[in-house]
Amino acid sequence: MTLTRRHFTQGLLAGTAAAGLAAPAIGQGKTKLKLILNWTYQGPQAWFFLAQDKGYFDQAGIEIEMDQGNGSGAAVGQVASGAYDVGFGDVNALIRLAATNPEEAPLCVYQMYNKPPFTVAVLQSSDIMTAEDLQGRKLGGAANDGALKLFPAFASVAGLDTSDIEILNFKSNLREQMLKSEQVEGVFGYVNTIRFSAKLSGMDPDADIRFINYGDYGMDLYSNGIIVPKAMAADQPELVKGLNWAINEGIKDTLADPDAGVDAVAAREPLINKAVEKERLVATLADEMNHPELAEYGLGDVDPERFKTAIDIVVAADGLPRTPSPDEIFSDAFLPAPEDRIYKLA
Asked: What tens digit of pLDDT does each residue of 280-314 get?
């Protein structure tokens, strides 16, 4: 079934009629789904809210409830535990779970962030210039932060001995202040999350912060994607396709009108700085989501060889007990039709 905006509802009706079933939105009522985001309501969540405001989830027969998250790593566990039906979480956390508890691991069905955003941010005034300089330092971050979860793997790749690196955990909203006040020497996070949160705290990120990026040390990883339970993927494939279609349409609309996207965020979180959140949104599109493979595969899909290599990097660096196969982690079976995918973000 080709899930274009114009034909989505018609196609869903035809498909369900052929199977002898009523369309979810008409015959059976909408399916309620709870979605946990990766972080607080910010610019890069715009497409989720636009998809809701413009009725795309409704068209897909979905009644969506979206909650703020407390880390991209946490979203995977919250779907695995059944606390949420859908998560926007870090695929590397999914790889670790699949390697250790494969029966619990959910599935990524739309890989949205295709470039590694993971970083340790330090002050420009510090003497930390490279990963090697993190040795013996005091670092900090939220316990469920994706970059912190990946730090053992990064340390392995970068040749760091973590036994003399102190890690302090604190709430995510304290991160930039902890760095600014030098209570820690470096903080974990995604580059653009830190950059623009620092800007909101009164810092000039370009002048005040230096980023030690994981990708610069060979960790060419994917990050955030749409995560669902394997049972949902197996038992309700049309629901998952509809979910992806709605989000994909929300991204298209955000690309067409970023201000409308930020307005949709502000409708849920009126205290945001809309100018800064627009900058954060644009930077996320340019950085986390704009790998060259986009032009070939389209947003949501992956380069199979690169994805397999990314799994191998995480397994080797973390010393995991088994290497999950790519199809344990990601499926392209629920993506929008190739002609309806996004191949360019700017």
From this structure: 999 999 999 999 999 999 999 999 999 999 999 99
Q: Which of 41, 51, 38 shows the shortest CA–CA distance to 272?
A: 41
Kind and range of the H or E run holding 36: strand 31-36
Record the tokens describing residue 259, joined without a space: 């201000």
**Runs of H (alpha helix) within 46-117:** 46-53, 56-59, 72-80, 91-100
How many of the other CB atoms lie within 10 Å of CB of 53?
A: 16
Find out whether 318 and 152 touch, Cβ atoms under 8 Å. yes
Dihedral sign computed on CA atoms, order 205, 41, 249, 253: negative
Q: pLDDT digits over 178-190, tens only?
A: 999 999 999 999 9
Give CA–CA dist 122/114, Å, rounded: 24
Separation of alpha carbons 337 and 143, rounded Å: 37
74 HSE (CA, 13 A, CB side): 17
d(CA 333, CA 323): 22
Per-residue confidence (pLDDT) for residue 38, from 0 to 100: 94
Residue 10: per-residue pLDDT = 39
DSSP conformation class of 300: B
